[in-house]
Amino acid sequence: MNNDNKQFMPQDVINDILEWEIMHGVAFRQADNTARHVPFSIAPMTMERSVYQHLLSVTPLIAKLVSNVSEDHDFLQESLSDMAKADPFFGRLMELHQQAHGDVTKRQQPARQPLLLMRTDFMDDRQHGAKVIEFNGIAAGMGPFGQRATELHCFVQDQWNDVYRNWLEDDTAIPADNHGMEQLAIGIAASARKVKAHFAELGDSANEQKPTFLMIVQKDEDNVYDQHLLEVALQKIGVRTVRRTFEQLSTQLSSGENQRLILENVGAIDTVYLRAGYQYSDYWAPELNEDICCHTLSQTRLFIEMHYVAMNATISQQLATSKSMQMLLTMMPAQEYARWGLTLEEARLVKSVLADMKPISKEAIEWFNTSADKQEWVLKNQGEGGGHCVFGDQISETLAKLKPEEYDAWALMQRLYPHERDTPTIAVRDGKQTLVNDLVSEIGLFTAHYQGEPVTELDGYAGYLIRSKPASENEGGIHSGQGILDSLVLINA
User: Fold this and answer.
1) Which segments does the entry list as coiled coil (predicted)?
2) 193: domain range?
3) d(C-alpha 279, C-alpha 301), whole Å
4) Total number of domains in the chain
5) Residue 382 located in a structural domain
6) Is 61 inside a domain boundary?
């Protein structure tokens, strides 16, 4: 970022927008229970309408593919076994998956009903076009913040039009619709009602309460307002919402008739949504003093899966959206996607947005160190969120430290270089303005599928999230990194 200590906008404009953000829940909770505004761009990013339409057409197909892969339990066990040996956390997930799905006879019994709430993240590469960065199948949040960012820029356009137009790249640009909060709520509510209807058909006499949604959260979470915005959207359409940590659930869950999931002092649960569970610390309870790390709380997750409840993310969905599975699907011929219900045309469409990936081996390391353009690759492990990518010359250093038994936990991926904005823009963080000359953006498209079928008003699509950052920064997360909240406007090329 570049800052020459000049005031680019009047402070009263900044104050007005900051108050709008806090008033509309676009904030992070601080340790002292105050709220800090989410950093944002003063004007949206620009994308060609044809590129956006391409992403709208391909993203639900990716969700369909991942949804069907996640229910192909033999394939998950066969294809991810080496990765599970190399990554202890995914090894634990594979053990849980084996417990849930290893016995063929159990597969015939009604149990968890898969609800895939997925965010597929893309960058529009200067040379190769829009490509997938990663699949997010667990804790795929910030849909509400994505919608709020679109609303924030509309607010700036309405209230401070001169400021908005001054920083807008193209005067002909039109905002892209974004109803992520409502569409995700519609998808979740649809799954909850279907589970409730299932039990009504079985004659469940205690089925009079509203459909009930359980969000599993991290203890002392600071990214709570995005979560609460989704809960409010659900409450508006008749769904009761409750929040619990895995630790709380370990003593509060029980089984009702016909594999009904029951929560103490609440009653039957229809839909479960994990905003936790993607790292060991989410399952760690020090007071349990366990011989095997995180056994009790991970078994709580497995206990939920043994019940007839709509669930995101299932253990198999988390495995199916891993970096290793992304690599396998990228390397696989398009014809093989037919196994999961995609036509050849659909498969080719999906393949068109998958960036090259390579497994780590002794030969791959030798190739990388002697022949590769190191700036054209990024090294990734299986971790979710920021801090799990290695760039440039540091890749060789990291590869040199890896033991052969750790290779399968890592992958090389084509590095994407998205378009930088044609004009500088203003980033606002902690109430302070900064001029950014090299802003680049990442677009995450949300989808919602229940039992493999779309459950939004937009054929499975459920809005978008734009995160922007200076091109010089590697970590672009809004929550953990140098990212800022942004929105999208479209132009005709």
Assistant:
1) none
2) 11-355+416-491
3) 13
4) 1
5) no
6) yes
